C-alpha cells in the first residue's frame, strides 16, 4: 500500500469526487509543445499589480491580478492557531488538539512541559504515513493528481519512500522572526548562510542568521523611492553584489564588500516596474521580468541592456534559469509559461493555462518545472513531456515557489498564509506551516538547512530544516 495522498474535504475520493474537483479547477491543458499560441484572459492595464495589497473585493479562492505579493496588509484571524499535519484535518484548521500530540522525537525542539506555547514555537511536521486505497469511498480525498497528456486525472499512489531517505526533511521549526516594519515582498539568503536580506517598501534590510533575537538589522540599504516596494533581491555567487528590483524603472546593483554597502550601478528599463529577477550561474547576466511583459537581459559587467525577450502579452511575473545557464523559464499574467533558449535567443515552448502565473521554479537536477497559480493549484511540468502533476493543498493563490538545491523537494507559499513543502515531482506533503498573514515570498539556503519567508505581517520568518 502507498502513503497517504488525502487532504481536506470532500470526504470521498471516488471517481465522482475527482470529476467534481476537475470541474471546479481551471481547464486542464497540456500544451508543452505548442509555440506562439494566443493566450486568453488578458487583463486590462488597470488590473496590473502596482502594490502588494490585494483588492478587498476578491474572494479567498480567487486572487487579484498581482504578479506576486497580494493581501499583504491583511492579518488572518487564526494567527493564534498552531500548525497541524494537513492529513489529520478536513477543511479549516482547528486549534491544536490533544489527540494530535507530536511524536517524542519532535518534543526535544519544544518548550519544557507546562510552558506557554505560541504558534511560532511549534515545529512544522509532515502528515503521518497513513495508508489507504484511493478507490474506496471511505478514503481521504487526494490532493496530488497525475494528469496525462489527454487531460485525464488520477490520484497519485505515493511510493513507500516518499517521505524518507537522504535529503528529505522530517520537519522544520521557526527559529527567528525578523521584524522588517513593512510588508516583506522579497527575501534571499546568502551563501554560505550567514545573512538574510528582506525587501519591503523602499529598502532592503540585512539580518544575521546566528542572532536568534534579531531585534534589529545589521544594515539597511535604501533602494528605489521610499513608497515603492522591492519585488526581488538576488545575490551574485560571490556574495559581494546584491541586485534589487521593484516598482521602479531602475534596478540597483549594490556593492556589499565596501566598508559601507553602496550602489555601484543602476540599470534603467523602459518598463515602469520589475516583478522578478534571475542571475546566470556565472553571475555575468541579469534577467528582469518587466511589467510590460518583456524579459530584459542585462550585462552586469558593462551595465548594458543586451537583449529583450518578447512574448508575454501581459506582465512577466516570475522567472528561473536552468543550472547550466542555457534555458530560461518565465511565467506571466497572460496565463502562459514560456521557455527560452539563451544561446539562440529564441522562445522554445509555451504552456497555456486558464489562470495567471504568479510563481515558478526549475528543479536544480533538471526535468521538472513547478508552477504556482492564481487559481491555488501547483502544477509540476516535465520539461519535455506533456504529462504533469497537479497539487491541491493551497486554498488561494500561490505567491512564491522555490526548489531545495538537492532537487528532492520544494516549497510554495500563498495568500492562504501557508508554507507547504512538497516531494519532487509528485507532491507528497512533507510539512506545512500556517503563518498569520499572506506569505508573499520565500527562499531556501544553498545547503538546504534554512527557509525564509516574507509576509504581509511586516516580518520575515526564518525556519531551520530538520532532517
Q: Which stretches are poorly predicted, pLDDT < 50 over at least 5 residues?
A: 7-138
Compute the number of helices: 2
Q: Any idea what the radius of gyration is? A: 21 Å
Overall mean pLDDT: 77
How many runs of DSSP E, i.e. beta strands?
Answer: 31
Beta percentage is 35-45%
Overall outline:
globular
Percentage of residues in helical conformation: under 10%
Q: What strand order characterises the main sheet?
A: 3-2-24-23-22-21
Terminal CA distance: 25 Å
> What structural category characterises the helix and strand content?
mainly beta
Largest beta-sheet details: 6 strands, antiparallel
In words, what does this structure look like?
The protein is built from 2 helices and 31 strands. The two termini are 25 Å apart. It has helices at residues 15-24, 104-107; strands at residues 124-125, 144-147, 153-155, 171-178, 186-189, 195-199, 203-208, 219-222, 230-235, 241-246, 250-255, 262-268, 274-279, 285-290, 295-299, 304-309, 316-321, 327-332, 336-341, 346-352, 357-362, 368-373, 378-382, 388-391, 398-403, 409-414, 418-423, 429-434, 439-444, 450-455, 460-466. Mean pLDDT is 77; it is low at 7-138. The radius of gyration is 21 Å and the shape is globular. A 6-stranded antiparallel beta sheet has the order 3-2-24-23-22-21, with helices on one face. The longest helix is centred in the N-terminal third of the chain and has 10 residues, at 15-24. 3% of the residues lie in helices and 37% in strands. It is mainly beta and 467 residues long.
Amino acid at each position: 500500500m502507498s502513503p497517504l495522498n488525502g487532504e481536506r474535504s470532500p470526504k470521498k475520493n471516488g471517481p465522482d469526487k475527482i470529476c467534481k474537483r476537475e470541474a471546479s479547477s481551471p481547464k486542464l491543458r497540456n500544451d508543452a509543445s505548442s509555440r506562439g499560441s494566443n493566450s486568453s484572459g488578458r487583463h486590462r492595464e488597470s488590473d496590473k499589480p502596482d502594490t502588494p495589497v490585494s483588492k478587498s473585493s476578491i474572494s479567498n479562492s480567487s486572487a487579484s491580478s498581482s504578479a506576486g505579493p497580494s493581501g499583504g496588509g491583511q492579518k488572518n484571524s487564526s494567527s493564534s492557531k498552531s500548525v497541524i499535519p494537513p492529513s489529520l484535518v478536513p477543511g479549516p484548521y482547528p486549534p491544536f488538539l490533544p489527540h494530535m500530540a507530536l511524536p517524542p522525537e519532535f518534543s526535544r525542539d519544544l518548550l519544557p512541559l507546562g510552558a506557554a506555547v505560541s504558534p511560532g514555537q511549534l515545529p512544522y511536521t509532515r502528515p503521518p504515513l497513513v495508508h489507504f486505497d484511493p478507490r474506496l469511498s471511505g478514503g481521504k480525498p487526494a490532493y496530488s493528481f497525475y494528469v496525462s497528456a489527454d487531460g485525464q486525472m488520477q490520484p497519485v499512489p505515493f511510493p513507500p519512500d516518499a517521505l524518507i531517505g537522504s535529503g528529505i526533511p522530517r520537519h522544520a521549526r521557526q527559529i527567528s522572526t525578523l521584524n522588517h516594519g513593512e510588508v516583506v515582498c522579497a527575501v534571499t539568503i546568502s551563501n554560505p548562510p550567514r545573512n538574510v536580506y528582506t525587501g519591503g517598501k523602499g529598502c532592503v534590510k540585512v539580518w544575521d542568521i546566528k542572532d536568534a533575537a534579531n531585534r534589529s538589522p545589521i544594515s539597511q540599504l535604501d533602494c528605489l523611492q521610499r513608497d515603492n516596494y522591492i519585488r526581488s533581491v538576488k545575490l551574485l555567487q560571490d556574495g559581494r553584489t546584491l541586485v534589487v528590483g521593484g516598482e521602479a524603472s531602475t534596478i540597483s546593483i549594490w556593492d556589499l564588500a565596501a566598508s559601507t554597502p553602496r550602489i555601484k550601478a543602476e540599470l534603467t528599463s523602459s518598463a515602469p516596474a520589475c516583478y522578478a529577477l534571475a542571475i546566470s550561474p556565472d553571475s555575468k547576466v541579469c534577467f528582469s521580468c518587466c511589467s510590460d511583459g518583456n524579459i530584459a537581459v542585462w550585462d552586469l559587467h558593462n551595465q548594458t541592456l543586451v537583449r529583450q525577450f518578447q512574448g508575454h502579452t501581459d506582465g512577466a511575473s516570475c522567472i528561473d534559469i536552468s543550472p547550466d545557464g542555457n534555458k530560461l523559464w518565465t511565467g506571466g499574467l497572460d496565463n502562459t509559461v514560456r521557455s527560452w533558449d539563451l544561446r539562440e535567443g529564441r522562445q522554445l515552448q509555451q504552456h497555456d493555462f486558464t489562470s495567471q502565473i504568479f510563481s515558478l521554479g526549475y528543479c536544480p537536477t533538471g526535468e521538472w518545472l513547478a508552477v504556482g497559480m492564481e487559481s491555488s493549484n501547483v502544477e509540476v511540468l516535465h520539461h519535455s513531456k506533456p504529462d504533469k502533476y497537479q497539487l491541491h493543498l493551497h486554498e488561494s493563490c500561490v505567491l512564491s515557489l522555490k526548489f531545495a538545491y538537492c532537487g528532492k523537494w520544494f516549497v510554495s507559499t500563498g495568500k492562504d498564509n501557508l508554507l507547504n513543502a512538497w516531494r519532487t515531482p509528485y507532491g507528497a506533503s512533507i510539512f506545512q506551516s500556517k503563518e498569520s498573514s499572506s506569505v508573499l515570498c520565500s527562499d531556501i539556503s544553498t545547503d538546504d538547512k534554512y527557509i525564509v519567508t516574507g509576509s504581509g505581517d511586516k516580518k520575515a520568518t526564518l525556519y531551520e530544516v530538520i532532517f
